[in-house]
Fold this sequence. Notes:
Structural class: alpha+beta
Distance between the termini: 45 Å
Helix content: 25-40%
Strand content: 15-25%
Number of strands: 8
CATH superfamily of the largest domain: ATPase, nucleotide binding domain
Largest sheet: 4 strands, mixed
Number of helices: 7
Shape: elongated
Mean pLDDT: 76
Amino acid sequence: xxxxxxxxxxxxxxxxxxxxxxxxxxxxxxxxxxxxxxxxxxxxxxxxxxxxxxxxxxxxxxxxxxxxxxxxxxxxxxxxxxxxxxxxxxxxxxxxxxxxxxxxxxxxxxxxxxxxxxxxxxxxxxxxxxxxxxxxxxxxxxxxxxxxxxxxxxxxxxxxxxxxxxxxxxxxxxxxxxxxxxxxxxxxxxxxxxx
Length: 195
């Protein structure tokens, strides 16, 4: 029987095999290969940076993150050479909820991704509370109103980056963007990015 390998990307604090942190000046990309029993057989690691253009703002260059994914994946594959004849059965991505990218009609990036920990939208959060009482908002979205979530950031972008927002066709979380880069059909389930 041919050995099968799973190539996954998850988060350190969930499964101890990848991180994407922007609480510090640099992020990390870690890819891991697992066998059919869930045992890690190889991994690859690559750093990338986060941008802080103003106090409280946190952005990422998704192309740099993509390069990190590719380099870390190649390292993981290189380390797995002692599993000759193995096939990769699945590839998985996850990203920090609330980090999103703006794409045009050709699925090209329009601006750096806005990271979940970006806090430029505190005033928008207050306005959202005036429009939607907390209980109503939670009943609709299942989440509290927060500047960490996508909605407040989109409202802010529409006001302060209106020229870019006019060109936006897609707003996607990291995993959708990277899956699409792998030429996968994009699945945007409702729970992919609530808020």
